[in-house]
Amino acid sequence: MILKTRHRLDTIEDVEEFYAAIRRERLTQSLSEDRPYTYWTIELYDQANGIRGGGGLGILAADTRRVAEQMNVPFTLVTPFYPSELHQKFENGKSIDESRPVNYEDFGFELIDTVNIRCNKDLVELSVIEKEFNSTRILAITEPNFGELYSGDSCGDHRLYQEVALGFGGYQALKLVGLKPAIMQLNEVATFFAALARLDELASNGMDFYEAVVYTRKHTLYTNHTLVQAAEASFSYEQFERYVFPNLKSRAVKKWLSDKFENGRIRLSSVTIEIAELRSGVSKLHARVANYRDLSGEKVKFRAVTNGVDLPYWVLPNIIDCYKSVGILDKFCLPSETYEDSVETIDAEAIRELKAQGRAFMNQVLARRPDQNGVFLNFKPDELVFDFKRRFVDYKRPWLPFTDPVKLKRILENHNAHYILTGRVHQGDERMMAKLNEVLDKIKNDKFLSTHVHYIADYDEELARALSVGSNISINIPIVGLEACGTSWEKDVGNLCLLVSTHDGGVADAPSDSYLNVSGKDELEEIESMYTRMEEAAKAWENDFDLEFWEKRQLSRYIPTISGTRMLKDYLDYLF
Q1: Which domains occur in the chain, in start order?
Q2: Is the pTM of this model over 0.70?
Q3: Element (H, E) at 492
Q4: Is residue 145 scored above 90 in pLDDT?
Q5: CB atoms < 10 A from the CB of 280, how many?
Q6: Positions of E strands within 434-567
Q7: For 515-540, how does the pLDDT look when each residue is reduced to its tens digit (9 = 90+)?
Q8: Which of 47, 22, 48 is nearest to 459 (CA)?
Q9: Whole-angstrom Cα distance, residue 432 to residue 284?
Q10: What is the SS3 assignment for 344?
């Protein structure tokens, strides 16, 4: 998508002029240094700045802030800082988790001051810490008793406490540093309490309650990252009496919120929909099929703003340079006006050379990250590497390629190939931990698989990027209808990996013939389709014509989708 300004983007000389061009289109007319775009997230995954999240939501948050910094957009990301984080290790051939303490001072965060919230009749002190990056900043709240990300039951007291701390504590933190949000983007319902805090401030400071509701709604965007409302957690009135109501000053707001309970419980998605006039889904398919209803029972419409990634961060620099030199991307990593024609100029020789450079980078990372056998891997440029690098959760089906070990072995044997599997299980998900250990047992008990399938523990940003730039074929096989977007596949497409995927999430932004599509009327047919597509992808890497065909098709169909700059522009367009 090309930004519609008075000037072609490729004629603009610097970021300041880019931002001025956006302002001329009135997309950021209300943004300024003290009235920033505020982005609320229960997790941030930004290893470079010492914050380790749990998955895609945190990765997306970090990408969005980096893109805002590159585009000189006034932007404040508000998040908790968790004083401990989970890591994964092997003991006796099994995967286990361990908790490690982290200190924000070690990563350049500065303590600003403290704020207080009320929970369970106690006054709780929260530290406000900050790190600035040009036009953007991370503003975090923390305290020693925060559990790890998503610790405890999703309907439990501690989860509610952490969400209340982010909302009410984070809103006070904004005021503490002299910021007033021009817009509040709420990422998932865990951030609802930030908008509630704003509504309460307006209503308790003399604004008519109805006007306060209208103002809050018009300046709040709810971005939904899940598909099914019924799957979300709910809380009891008694829990709100202990954790939420003590933080409200306005009786009118408390009455408004009390009226949202049904049978003594409240679903946060319902009230988040009520408090945000602007609502977005994270892919075209997601916005179309997400099944959410407001309190009157009417289905809620979402604007599609497909997730994008910070291409300069995730894609090998030499690949980015290639895209710019041939005219696929402009200097701001937006697709050029001639990107489709420019894609046709890339040939198999260039693809193989770029991937060889990515392989060298991947080997550097793997030299510090042993597999399940304690082996430090080093792959030659001509060795084929499949990978699965996503959270180990049910709907992503990481175990599917191991359904028929004989067929998997045949593919790997026939093509001098290896398979790298990585991904972490959510804390407390005993079923998925058992699934992971079952897969590891299958690998261990087969002589060939034990030397050609490699499980790399402690999946993180570093490993995700290394595999994207160095692998040849990426496996993405969620159950169709359950993936809202996903962004791992976007990094793979950008890094010239061939994509073997089901037609779900953001992948479905383009037609199913845009990649090696896995399909079938049931899971058995999907499994057969998956093996067929894996075989086709392996053969494509052995044939210049097929390699060029699939790489060019993927790039021409998905370059507009995967651009994080495009994503931020779409949000600005929608908001202003």
Answers
A1: 31-305 (3.40.50.2000), 311-568 (3.40.50.2000)
A2: yes
A3: helix 488-494
A4: no
A5: 22
A6: 453-455, 473-476, 498-502, 516-518
A7: 999 999 999 999 999 999 999 999 99
A8: 47
A9: 29
A10: coil
